[in-house]
Amino acid sequence: MHPIVKPALRRGWRDLNTVQFGMAPAHAMVLGPMDTATGSFLELLDGTRGMPLLREQGREMGLPDGHVDGLVDRLARSGLLDDATGGGPAADALREKTEVMDRLRSDLASLSLVARRPGGAVERLAARRCLRVQVRGAGRVGVVLAALLAGAGVGEVEVRDLGRVEPWDVAPGGLPVESIGERREDAARRAVRRAAPDRPPRASSKERQEREGEETRGLSLVVITPRDGLGVHAPDPVSAESLIASGTPHLYAGVVEATGIVGPLVLPGDTGCAGCLDQQRTDRDPTWPRLVAQWRSGQQRRVAACDLALASAVAALAASHALAFLDGDQPSSAGARWEASLPGCDWHAKPVRAHPGCPCGTAEKTKGERTPEDGEGHETMAGQQPHATRLAGTWRAHV
């Protein structure tokens, strides 16, 4: 182990005996009392020294036996310490790719704040390279989101869509103006490739054969980003049946009539799905099915009200939620939808309950667990982010 105090956290002394690590309240921590010699020793925890050398230098500074090990253990348990050589073989292989690591330095620093265990941040970053995510929809939201995931180190990001790029599909960080008239999937593939810091590891022949046999096999996550905002405002339960049946986690994101939507993140069997949402709305408003049927009819469609700023905000928030899930955490979109409308852009969450009438069966499995009712406990982005259900198990991305 080569201990390093997490460099992403700025350090400052509150007084002669108390040191504060970090500025933002979400990750800041105060430790004390700390004497002058120990404070000076912190400068040696820079990742260039192993424990034997640190113990020796600690004795030279007059620190008592066992003090260095105790300090390192205390910092590690507080989530303030990283390991410059940790993370396992996959992390070692990633460190050898100097140019790739330089592209991902900021992402690694961010991960170090949420992965408390020493070496956990680079381990998560290396694990991303083995993940496969599918984005369904190559519009202003979908392609930007796919590029963000690829740029953050997700190994394989594929975008599915039909048709050709229209002028209103173009977006900074997404489809360039040069792609107008090209097949959407081809243009999206190039945008993702440009954003990725590295080529993904090649899948084995067995993995490729399995994928050909079942479209969702090997997918860590599917993100549904329909260009038609109706597909995220009122997602069709039928279109997600194969995802529910295969147990594939999926996240909805998009813009409808100048309203951005992120969620729900559906964990089949544990959180409410598109069918639950549809049943829930029907319970509240008996005319809901009639309206949806009219909206889904074959009438002529107009260009969607999806401005660049809101589409980019939705793509960024959805990418952040997707990465949190892929890294093994539970984002607040699990069983909830985050929404914001122009011009105020006030993000708020609406729970998506597991409905007993939905054939997904989640309500029966989670019976007895506390689930917020609709309209109860809506939170803003500045407040505590609610979870609509307590998950029965811990979901992790497939590696």
Write up this protein:
- The chain has 399 residues and is of the alpha/beta class.
- It has two domains: 1-85, Outer Surface Protein A, domain 3; 129-365, Rossmann fold (3-Layer(aba) Sandwich).
- The protein contains 16 helices and twelve strands.
- It has helices at residues 36-41, 51-60, 67-77, 88-95, 98-103, 105-114, 120-128, 140-151, 184-195, 205-213, 230-233, 241-246, 274-284, 288-295, 308-326, 362-365, and strands spanning 3-5, 11-15, 18-21, 29-31, 81-83, 132-136, 156-160, 221-224, 250-256, 259-266, 336-341, 348-351.
- A seven-stranded mixed sheet has the order 7-6-8-9-10-11-12. It has a three-stranded antiparallel sheet with strand order 2-3-4, with no helix packed on it. A two-stranded antiparallel ribbon has the order 1-5.
- Helix 4 (88-95) packs across helix 7 (120-128), helix 6 packs across helix 7 (120-128) and helix 8 (140-151) crosses helix 15 (308-326).
- The longest helix is centred in the C-terminal third of the chain and has 19 residues, at 308-326.
- It is elongated and about 80 Å long.
- Residues 370-399 have low confidence and may be disordered.
Summarize the structure.
The protein has 399 residues and is an alpha/beta fold. Helices cover 36% and strands 14% of the residues. It has 16 helices and twelve strands.
Helical residues, percent? 25-40%
Largest sheet: 7 strands, mixed
Do you know the CATH architecture of the largest domain? 3-Layer(aba) Sandwich
Structure classification: alpha/beta
Shape: elongated
What order do the strands of the largest sheet run in, or round the barrel if closed? 7-6-8-9-10-11-12
User: Helical element count?
Assistant: 16
CATH topology of the largest domain: Rossmann fold
What order do the helices and strands follow? EEEEHHHEHHHHEHEHHEHHEEHHHEEH
User: In the CATH hierarchy, what is the class of the largest domain?
Assistant: Alpha Beta
Annotated CATH homologous superfamily of the largest domain: NAD(P)-binding Rossmann-like Domain
Poorly predicted ranges: 370-399
Rg (C-alpha, Å): 24 Å
On the 0-100 scale, what is the average pLDDT?
Answer: 88
Total domain units:
2
* Total number of strands: 12
* Binned strand content: 5-15%
